[in-house]
């Protein structure tokens, strides 16, 4: 009998950023946050977990390479917590159930997007780890309960346990039991929400989120203002905007919060810079696009957001996707012809990048080829999926295929 399960989990990109921990070992945040889950058809982590009495230790391979599961480390904490849930929720209640919590596990995980693209993989990775163990252990747990464990792998991972629009409620208990993810609205609520990821060329290795946010907590006075006086109202306002499908408010809050996150990074001592000149040029182009849109319709049509690196994610509604891609490709020429995964461009395909009437082209120069080294067009998507045996990543011996 092989005890094994394979699942995939999505990437999420925050509109209200998590930046700061009040407890670094349990990973409890200084503020609530909210994200959009992206479609796993384009970006996902897939993980196979197997429990077997012949395994002598917990082992994990990431993209084929073995990672050391350090005792007390984040991976080991997640595995331990999942074994504890298996024991409490299944084995203690049914003594005839296989005692899987006493077996070591082998885990193989694979990201379908290049780590070199600079896209955060920890969120989808830990969500896939937790969801594959939950499937292996047949845990009768809702995603919110599992999010408590994914959170201890990487804070932002707790939001990848659910699809659609997801809030991570900071909670107030010191044991962290109320610091979990909840769904604000499922992906079906606003299916016209699209995301365009602009992968910005970046040679240097930046400050990691974990160490960067800790330095911000220790040194930034602006962070205290953000936590107390800005984020609580934004969480209320953006949730309302989502429920009402009010893109204008959603976009304005998303952009303001990205900018404030980068402002608290700058307010850190020594300062942290995650965006570069290309990132700032993308902001200038989107802001000009929105200025023209507001002049004609009274509403903005696109929202940029940046995490702990120079890549941009642009949220927009389906009707504007083609226009925005044409605009981005005009300022940031692409080596490869852009593919149209959703068939939105019509028979003529992508146009020559005619800008909307009144657009001031002088806001940005035409950048050299490769400044934005790739574009990934995706949509809002659902939570983790259980996959069938054929997709398993472990071979008969329990090592990666
Ligand atoms: C800027 O979740 O990667 O993407 O909890 O230390 O693993 P750790 O940090 P991580 O931080 C993510 C920061 C962010 C904002 C966000 O996703 O909310």
From TrEMBL:
Gene Ontology biological process terms, A to Z: isopentenyl diphosphate biosynthetic process, mevalonate pathway; sterol biosynthetic process
Listed GO CC annotations: cytosol
Top-level taxon of the source organism: Eukaryota
Signal peptide coordinates: none
Molecular function GO terms recorded: ATP binding; diphosphomevalonate decarboxylase activity
Pathway(s) where this gene product acts: Isoprenoid biosynthesis; isopentenyl diphosphate biosynthesis via mevalonate pathway; isopentenyl diphosphate from (R)-mevalonate: step 3/3
UniProt keyword annotations, A-Z: ATP-binding, Lipid biosynthesis, Lipid metabolism, Lyase, Nucleotide-binding, Steroid biosynthesis, Steroid metabolism, Sterol biosynthesis, Sterol metabolism
Mvd1 C-terminal domain: residues covered: 195-387
EC number per UniProt: 4.1.1.33
Domain (Diphosphomevalonate decarboxylase-like N-terminal): residue spans on this chain: 9-180
InterPro entries, sorted: GHMP_kinase_C_sf, Mev_decarb, Mev_diP_decarb, MVD-like_N, Mvd1_C, Ribosomal_Su5_D2-typ_SF, Ribsml_uS5_D2-typ_fold_subgr
Catalytic activity: (R)-5-diphosphomevalonate + ATP = isopentenyl diphosphate + ADP + phosphate + CO2
PANTHER family in the cross-refs: DIPHOSPHOMEVALONATE DECARBOXYLASE
Family classification: Belongs to the diphosphomevalonate decarboxylase family.
Protein name per its UniProtKB record: Diphosphomevalonate decarboxylase
């Amino acid at each position: 009998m092989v005890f094994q399960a394979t699942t995939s989990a999505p990437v999420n990109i925050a509109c209200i950023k998590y930046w700061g921990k009040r407890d670094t070992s349990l990973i409890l945040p200084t503020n609530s946050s909210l994200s959009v889950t992206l479609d796993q058809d384009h970006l996902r982590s897939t993980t196979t977990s197997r429990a077997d009495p012949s395994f002598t230790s917990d082992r994990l391979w990431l993209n084929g390479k073995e990672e050391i599961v350090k005792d007390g480390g984040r991976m080991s904490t997640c595995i331990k917590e999942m074994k504890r849930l298996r024991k409490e929720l299944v084995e203690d209640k049914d003594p005839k159930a296989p005692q899987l919590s006493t077996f070591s596990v082998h885990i193989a995980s694979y990201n379908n997007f290049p780590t070199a693209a600079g896209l955060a993989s920890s969120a989808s990775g830990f969500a896939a780890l937790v969801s594959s163990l939950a499937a292996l252990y047949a845990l009768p747990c809702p995603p919110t309960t599992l999010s408590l464990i994914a959170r201890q792998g990487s804070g932002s991972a707790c939001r990848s346990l659910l699809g659609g629009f997801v809030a991570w409620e900071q909670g107030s208990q010191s044991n962290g039991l109320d610091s979990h993810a909840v769904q604000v609205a499922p992906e079906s609520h606003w299916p016209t929400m699209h995301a365009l990821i602009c992968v910005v060329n970046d040679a240097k290795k930046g400050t990691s989120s974990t160490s960067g946010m800790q330095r911000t907590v220790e040194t930034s006075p602006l962070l205290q203002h953000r936590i107390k006086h800005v984020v609580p109202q934004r969480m209320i306002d953006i949730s309302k905007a989502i429920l009402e499908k009010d893109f204008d408010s959603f976009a304005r809050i998303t952009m303001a919060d990205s900018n404030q996150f980068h402002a608290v990074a700058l307010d850190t001592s020594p300062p942290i810079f995650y965006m570069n000149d290309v990132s700032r040029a993308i902001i200038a182009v989107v802001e000009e696009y929105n200025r023209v849109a507001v002049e004609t319709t009274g509403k903005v049509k696109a929202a940029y957001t940046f995490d702990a690196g120079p890549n941009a994610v642009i949220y927009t509604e389906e009707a504007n996707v083609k226009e925005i891609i044409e605009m981005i490709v005009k300022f940031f020429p692409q080596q490869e012809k852009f593919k149209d995964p959703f068939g939105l461009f019509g028979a003529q395909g992508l146009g020559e990048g005619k800008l909307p009437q009144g657009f001031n082209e002088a806001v940005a120069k035409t950048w050299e080829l490769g400044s934005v080294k790739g574009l990934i067009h995706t949509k809002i998507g659902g939570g983790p999926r259980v996959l069938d045996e054929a997709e398993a990543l472990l071979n008969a011996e329990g090592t990666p295929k």
